Amino acid sequence: MGDGSGGRAKMNWSDFFTMGGYGFYVWGSYGVTALLIIIEIIWVLQRRKALLNRLARMSRLSKG
User: Fold this and answer.
1) Taking the domains of the chain in order of start, what are their residue ranges?
2) Do residues 46 and 40 lie in contact, with contact meaning Cβ atoms separated by under 8 Å?
């Protein structure tokens, strides 16, 4: 009654990261998703740079 937890069991960091035995799957899924998002951002930035270069080249060719 006096511990302030409201009847909830305390969880330590180890329990949090193991996720009841599903930690490898859960954290692996987060890792793969984060990796794919980073790859997507890199690809978008590369495509943007290539497009801007192409537009600049086309602009130079049309002017002269």
Assistant:
1) 32-64
2) no
